[in-house]
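ok trying again, last paste got cut off:
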Amino acid sequence: MGRDAVTGGGCAVSLAGAVGAVVVWGQTARTQRHLGNGFENNGQDFGAVLTELPLVFLAGAVVPAVLWGLGAWLLGRRGRPGSSQFHA
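nice, full thing came through this time. structure:
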């Protein structure tokens, strides 16, 4: 697989992870309560959104990208002759 394809795949996985993490975070009962969907807006706290949302977005983007890169590195390493760590 070419280097451009691996890079493009990593970016796509990162984007999907970030969007997915934000969507899942937004659907939780705790987040809905902070956004004002509780009884008469009890527990409404937009400070939680300002602190949690960037962290959720970054975690959703970084974790899949790191796993993609690790997988690409391991698969690329497996195909090279003489890449074994054990020498006779």
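cool. The helical segments are 3-27, 29-37, 46-79. Residues 7-72 form one domain.
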